[in-house]
Amino acid sequence: MIVIDAEFSGLDSSQHCLLSLGAIDYCNPQDRFYGECYGWEGATFDPESLTVNGFLPSALTDTQKLSPYDLLQSFFTWCKEKENRTIAGHNVWLDREFLVRTASRVGLPFRPHRIIDLHSIAVGEFMRRGLPIPLRENESALSASVIYEYVGLPKEPFPHHALTGALMEAEAFSRILHQKNILPEFAHYPLPKFS
């Protein structure tokens, strides 16, 4: 699978844009991808989202960065070499939505049929172990931060960075699914004992 994380100018793919994309080949963790792009013409931004990811409003029009077409074309070329191209990540449906919408805007075919969601895997893990699932407004509150703490990882650095997010998600997948560390960046964080 390909673990991805993306940063956007907001959370609504009809008005906000993709700004960066990080990815790691889960089967070959040294094989990684990262790129940034400017936004599509007319894209807007949510100040709160830009605070989270550290991009400035000028990033939406910074033509020194890749165009959305070039970023996705590079990513798709990188993906072609992978045996398993199933997209994975935390709440990955949003990343998928932005990639599909951006690809459609720039005329590139991209319509992945399957995704693997870290949140769902973590819910299953909590249920299997009989652990209470934290709730907020009567819905699961298993955020990435809660999952990282559960698997013995630190909090994600702030502001968020797409490649760092993808790496942390891949490590969390491995610690839940295989009870092992896969990335050298996180080897010094002890693996909790899961029963």
Strand and helix layout:
Blueprint: E1 2-8, E2 18-25, E3 32-36, H1 47-53, H2 68-80, E4 87-89, H3 92-106, E5 115-117, H4 118-129, E6 135-136, E7 139-140, H5 144-150, H6 162-177
Parallel strand pairs: 1-4, 4-5
Antiparallel strand pairs: 1-2, 2-3, 6-7
Order of helices and strands: EEEHHEHEHEEHH
Helix/sheet category: alpha/beta
Strand content: 15-25%
Mind describing the biggest β-sheet? 5 strands, mixed
pLDDT average, as an integer? Answer: 96
CATH class type of the largest domain: Alpha Beta
CATH architecture group name of the largest domain: 2-Layer Sandwich
Number of helices: 6
Spell out the CATH superfamily of the largest domain. Answer: Ribonuclease H-like superfamily/Ribonuclease H
In whole angstroms, the N-to-C terminal distance is 26 Å
How many domains make up the 3D coordinates? 2
Identify low-pLDDT runs: none
- How do the strands of the widest beta sheet line up side by side? 3-2-1-4-5
Compute the CA-based radius of gyration. 17 Å
β-strand number: 7
Helix content: 25-40%
Shape: globular
CATH fold group of the largest domain: Nucleotidyltransferase, domain 5
Explained architecture:
By secondary structure, the protein is an alpha/beta fold. The protein folds into 2 domains: 2-115, 2-Layer Sandwich (Nucleotidyltransferase, domain 5), CATH 3.30.420; 118-186, no CATH class. 36% of the residues lie in helices and 15% in strands. Strands 3-2-1-4-5 form a 5-stranded mixed β-sheet, sandwiched between helices. A hairpin with a 2-residue loop joins strand 6 (135-136) and strand 7 (139-140). The longest helix has 16 residues, at 162-177. It is globular. It starts with a strand and ends in an 18-residue tail after the last helix.
